Structures are given as structure tokens and as C-alpha cells.
């Protein structure tokens, strides 16, 4: 494991807050965004604002789908998944702009999750749990969401070797990308599974399918999360130090 000591009681406490209450925090923020009187007129402003709000609604539906699953059902992935999903809840709250400490909590949660996700058994348990939730390819429009998550798992495998066995104090520089992606494939798979069980066509089923497709599109696609190197970490410190001491001229 790492030669750096990164775990303290603080990360445990922050994880507990977001794991236990993060869904409620996010729901309250998004409810405020969705309550604007101008949400449903046809002006360009309203359309743009509504699109942003719809993305936040989808994150709530994803969080609900994940938390509807019994914790015990996650088996070996339980600890790592709990930490990773706590991160994504804080990240979504920060993005929605309605929680004072969400952004700083993300840094704490990144470190806390990486303590596990840089260990092969935990990394693999999360991806195995995602495959389990994903199940067999569904029919209809839900297939697109399933395929994006399935592809996302394949992409994760291409950089696994950069993270597993790495020093969290180094890879934390880009660790939020890994923690986010692993949490997102888990949540997207939970949404796919929830939509797949709603077998009878209905408005609710259609909303779940739309949410699964949109969540996967927003969060699961993209290049493989690459780990940072010691050189990158040092260069970042140089940039910040130079700016803070006015060493970078305009």
C-alpha cells in the first residue's frame, strides 16, 4: 500500500455524511432548481435552464436507484462502492451549487475512495458488481444505456494497471476522475437494472429508460481515466506556487 498515511477519522466522517444523507441533500437542491416559475415557458433562456435542471434530475434518479439496492447485495464491493458513490453525490451537489462544503468534501472523498480503489480486490469488486447489475442486454431503447455502461467497463480495464498498486498520494492528482467513473458505472448500471425490471410500458418506465440513457451519456462515456505521475504532481505544485508568489507575469 502507500507509504503515505492518508486515512484519518475525517474521511470516514465525511463519507458517512454523504453516504447516509447525500441523496436527501441532492434532492433538496434539485427541487429548488426545478421550482422556478419560468421553467416551462418557450424562451431560449428557459430551454437552456431546463436542460441543466433535467441533468440534475437525472442524477437524483440515479442516486435513488442506487440507494434502493440493499447494501448487503453489493457483497465484496460494498465498502469501495459506498465511498465512491459518496463522492459522486458530493460532486453532483457541488455542480448544482447548493451545498457549502460539497466541493472541498470531494477532495476528502477522493482520497478516502482511492485508499480502496488502488487495491486490486476492491477495484475488481466494483467492476464485477457493475457487470452483475447490468445483466443481459435488454431490448428497445434501454439497450443504448446498457451498451454505454458495458463499453465503459471495457475502457476502465485499459488503465487498471495505472491505478492498482499505485501510491494514492500520487494518483490522487487525477483520482477524482477514477472515483467518479467507477461510481458512475455503478449508478448507471443500477438505473439500467431498475428500468429493465419495469417491464410493462408506462410513463414511469419511459422516464426511467430516458434517465438511464441520459445518465450513461453524461457520465460513463469518454476516454479511460489515466493516473497522474510524480512529475505531473510536481509540475502542478510549481504552477500553483509560482502564481501564489506572483511568479507568473500577466
What does this structure look like?
- This protein has ten helices and no strands.
- With 250 residues, it is mainly alpha-helical.
- The longest helix has 30 residues, at 168-197.
- The termini are far apart.
- Mean pLDDT is 90; it is low at 1-8.
Task: Using brief descriptors, characterize the structure shown.
250 residues, mainly alpha, 73% helix, 0% strand, disordered N terminus
What percentage of amino acids are in beta strands? under 5%
Figure out the total of helices.
Answer: 10
Termini separation comes to 42 Å
Mean pLDDT level: 90
Uncertain segments are 1-8
Q: How does the overall form come out from the CA principal axes?
A: globular
What's the SSE pattern? Answer: HHHHHHHHHH
The percent of residues in helical segments reads over 70%
Main beta sheet: none
By DSSP, the count of extended strands is 0
Structural class: mainly alpha
Computed CA radius of gyration, to the nearest angstrom: 19 Å
How is this fold's topology laid out?
Layout: H1 9-34, H2 44-67, H3 78-96, H4 102-117, H5 120-134, H6 142-158, H7 160-163, H8 168-197, H9 203-219, H10 230-244
Helix pairs in contact: 1-2, 1-3, 1-4, 2-8, 2-9, 3-4, 3-5, 3-8, 4-8, 5-6, 5-8, 6-8, 6-9, 8-9
Amino acid at each position: 500500500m502507500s507509504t503515505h498515511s492518508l486515512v484519518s477519522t475525517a474521511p470516514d466522517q465525511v463519507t458517512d455524511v454523504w453516504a447516509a444523507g447525500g441523496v436527501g441533500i441532492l434532492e433538496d437542491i434539485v427541487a429548488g432548481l426545478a421550482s422556478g416559475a419560468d421553467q416551462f415557458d418557450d424562451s431560449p433562456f428557459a430551454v437552456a435552464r431546463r436542460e441543466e435542471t433535467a441533468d440534475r434530475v437525472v442524477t437524483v434518479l440515479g442516486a435513488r436507484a442506487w440507494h434502493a439496492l440493499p447494501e448487503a447485495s453489493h457483497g465484496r464491493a460494498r465498502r469501495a462502492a459506498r465511498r465512491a458513490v459518496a463522492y459522486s453525490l458530493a460532486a453532483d451537489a457541488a455542480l448544482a451549487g447548493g451545498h457549502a462544503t460539497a466541493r472541498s468534501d470531494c477532495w476528502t472523498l477522493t482520497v478516502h475512495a482511492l485508499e480502496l480503489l488502488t487495491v486490486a480486490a476492491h477495484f475488481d469488486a466494483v467492476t464485477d458488481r457493475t457487470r452483475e447489475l447490468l445483466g443481459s442486454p435488454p431490448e428497445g431503447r434501454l439497450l443504448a444505456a446498457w451498451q454505454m455502461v458495458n463499453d465503459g467497463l471495457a475502457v476502465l480495464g485499459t488503465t487498471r494497471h495505472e491505478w492498482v498498486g499505485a501510491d494514492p498520494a500520487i494518483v490522487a492528482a487525477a483520482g477524482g476522475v477514477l472515483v467518479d467513473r467507477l461510481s458512475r458505472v455503478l449508478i448507471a448500471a443500477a438505473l439500467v437494472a431498475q428500468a429493465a425490471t419495469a417491464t410493462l410500458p408506462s410513463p414511469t418506465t419511459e422516464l426511467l429508460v430516458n434517465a438511464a440513457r441520459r445518465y450513461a451519456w453524461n457520465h460513463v462515456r469518454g476516454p479511460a481515466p489515466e493516473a497522474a505521475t510524480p512529475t505531473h504532481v510536481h509540475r502542478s505544485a510549481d504552477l500553483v506556487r509560482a502564481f501564489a508568489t506572483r511568479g507568473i507575469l500577466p
